[in-house]
TrEMBL record:
InterPro entries: ABC_BtuC-like, ABC_transptr_permease_BtuC. It comes from Chromobacterium aquaticum. It comes from the Bacteria. PANTHER family: FERRIC ENTEROBACTIN TRANSPORT SYSTEM PERMEASE PROTEIN, FERRIC ENTEROBACTIN TRANSPORT SYSTEM PERMEASE PROTEIN FEPG. Keywords: Cell membrane, Membrane, Transmembrane, Transmembrane helix, Transport. Belongs to the binding-protein-dependent transport system permease family. FecCD subfamily. The lineage of its organism: Bacteria, Pseudomonadati, Pseudomonadota, Betaproteobacteria, Neisseriales. Its main location: membrane. It is a multi-pass membrane protein. It is found in: Cell membrane. This is Iron-enterobactin ABC transporter permease.
């Protein structure tokens, strides 16, 4: 039995209501799963804590060691995993909706590579602060998006042309990134290479706060454009007939999507797979062809938090960068997706 498709203009609004109700229940279940996994992550580690000890430490009570471990080390990491994962998931939902292709993810079309390039320039050439790294990542992501958009423009930028151009630009930027690392000082290169794998190790409030604020503001702005994004999925002509300026709205959504991926990259480095998979997993959970950006955000938060927990526990006491875990899983997922799309195109 095929899942119902959300169609705009449903005369009695029943389909719209089912979509909203399904999205609400899915969001609540994902939020509950995130909360449970967050508690598990806060308790686990070299200093295991009971639920009572964890609650006391969150309130600033109990032993000084437990309070420091929870409030200064584990809590920033868990919250940033949730925020960064949500930003990646929502960014993926935006770009897959605009490109109308499940491969239209920012880590496939090269926008996160551009953000990494911008942050890498600030790190290796200017030894910038966390605020400057966030600004460099945003500038790099926006410039990469503008370059891809202009090169793919043929009376519009849609579909596989945008994906192919994005892959080509991503390859060129990757070469530039390697050149920057080779020519950087040893200390800067080692720090940038570790961060470039995508990691939440050593996350603190000072490191994460600038990017977290940017992510939250961009997500709120994107949610205000959710209805316009749905109308664009019907085609530019239909969206224009309903009073939506198609190209202007597309540019706004692309800018917000790049801001999300760039802010996430500035905080934790380039993390693959989450932006690609979260919207599609959310779509299957909701049993609809229209993915809610909010549901994709909750899914991304859960995926990244789970991946980070695995990165900490799989080879304990050694901790892997979370990007290593996501890229291993993401490679298999991308291969399955490509084989599935190839099979679907056969007559």
């Amino acid at each position: 039995m095929k899942p119902a498709v959300w169609q705009w203009g449903d005369p009695d609004g029943a389909c719209n209501g089912r979509m909203a109700l399904g999205g609400l229940w899915t969001g609540l279940l994902l939020a509950a799963a995130c909360a449970a996994l967050a508690v598990l992550s806060l308790r686990a580690g070299a200093l295991p804590l009971s639920l009572e000890q964890l609650w006391q430490a969150l309130q600033g009570q109990g032993g000084r060691l437990e309070v420091a471990v929870v409030q200064q080390w584990r809590l920033p990491r868990v919250l940033m995993a949730l925020v960064v994962g949500a930003a990646l998931g929502m960014s993926g939902a935006i770009f897959q909706s605009l490109i109308r292709n499940p491969l239209g993810s920012p880590d496939v079309v090269g926008f996160n590579t551009g953000a990494y390039t911008g942050a890498l320039v600030v790190i290796t050439l200017f030894n910038g602060s966390h605020f400057q790294i966030a600004g460099g990542a945003l500038a790099g992501g926006l410039l990469a998006a503008a370059l891809v958009y202009l090169l793919a423009w043929r009376q519009g930028a849609h579909g596989f042309r945008l994906i192919i151009v994005g892959i080509a630009v991503s390859a060129m930027l990757s070469a530039l990134n390697h050149w920057l690392l080779i020519n950087a000082s040893l200390e800067a290169a080692m720090g940038a290479a570790t961060w470039g794998a995508g990691t939440l190790n050593g996350m603190t409030w000072n490191k994460g706060l600038p990017s977290a604020l940017c992510c939250l503001l961009a997500m709120l702005a994107a949610l205000t454009l959710q209805r316009r994004m749905r109308l664009l999925e019907m085609g530019d002509d239909c969206a224009s007939a309903l009073g939506v300026p198609a190209e202007r709205t597309r540019l706004w959504l692309m800018g917000l999507g790049v801001a999300l991926i760039a802010s996430a990259t500035a905080a934790a480095g380039p993390i693959s797979f989450i932006a690609l998979a979260a919207p599609q997993i959310a779509q299957r959970l909701q049993r609809t062809q229209a993915t809610s950006p909010l549901t994709a955000a909750w899914t991304g938060a859960l995926l990244l938090l789970a991946a980070d927990y695995g990165a900490q526990q799989l080879f304990y006491p050694r901790q892997l960068p979370v990007g290593v875990v996501t890229i291993c899983i993401g490679g298999l997922y991308l291969l399955w997706l490509l084989l599935r799309q190839t099979g679907a195109r056969k007559p």
